[in-house]
């Protein structure tokens, strides 16, 4: 089994200012493979377990970032080994463009990838609660993938039962109007 110390940090991710984790570009010492290594700051193991379960359920979905492993990082906190998306986030791109936006055809392409990715997540029983430009990653092959699942919720239990989960978390600027309702829930 891979250990966090089996990776050498080779740079910070463009999303290195993540409030709930530290994300870095890392190379596996033995294989030389490059990954994104997300070191969680969250001391609640349940949060880390839910994120790992979401990533496990989404395995193989072409518009969701690939999940390689969950390791124990410094202080026993979770460390996610993820696909490295070498072109950064859509949020990075928008900030670099200084408010100029992006061409309509590119927006349509990104939206199409997102809709398919969200449908893939929903088919796995996952509600993605924080869809925003900083959580949409790109690579130089032109792929757009959804990432950062710490604010996702599982809608179906292990026996297939439908769960009701609170959906009020997320980045306020990107919340849909119904999420502002008191006691908003998914799975009903």
UniProtKB/TrEMBL annotation:
Occurrences of domain Protein kinase (ranges): 4-188
Ranges that cross the membrane: none
Pfam families found in the cross-reference section: Pkinase (PF00069)
Keyword presence, Nucleus: no
Catalytic activity: L-threonyl-[protein] + ATP = O-phospho-L-threonyl-[protein] + ADP + H(+); L-seryl-[protein] + ATP = O-phospho-L-seryl-[protein] + ADP + H(+); L-tyrosyl-[protein] + ATP = O-phospho-L-tyrosyl-[protein] + ADP + H(+)
Molecular functions (GO terms): ATP binding; MAP kinase kinase activity; protein serine/threonine kinase activity; protein tyrosine kinase activity
Alphabetic keyword roster: ATP-binding, Kinase, Nucleotide-binding, Phosphoprotein, Serine/threonine-protein kinase, Transferase, Tyrosine-protein kinase
Source taxon at top rank: Eukaryota
Stated name of the protein: Protein kinase domain-containing protein
Provenance organism: Miscanthus lutarioriparius
């Amino acid at each position: 089994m891979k250990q966090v110390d089996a990776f050498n940090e080779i740079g910070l991710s463009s999303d290195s200012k993540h409030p709930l984790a530290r994300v870095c570009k890392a190379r596996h010492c033995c294989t030389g493979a490059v990954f994104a290594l997300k070191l969680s700051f969250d001391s609640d193991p349940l949060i880390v377990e839910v994120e790992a379960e979401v990533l496990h359920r989404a395995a193989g979905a072409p518009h969701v970032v690939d999940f390689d492993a969950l390791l124990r990082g410094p202080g026993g906190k979770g460390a996610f080994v993820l696909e490295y998306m070498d072109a950064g986030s859509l949020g990075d791109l928008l900030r670099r463009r200084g408010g100029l936006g992006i061409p309509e055809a590119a927006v349509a392409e990104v939206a199409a990838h997102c809709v398919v990715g969200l449908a893939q997540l929903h088919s796995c029983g996952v509600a993605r609660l924080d869809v925003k430009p900083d959580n949409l990653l790109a690579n130089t092959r032109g792929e757009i993938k959804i990432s950062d699942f710490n604010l996702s919720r599982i809608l179906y239990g292990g026996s297939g039962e439908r769960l009701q989960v609170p959906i009020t978390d997320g980045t306020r600027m990107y919340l849909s109007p119904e999420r502002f309702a008191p006691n908003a829930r998914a799975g009903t």
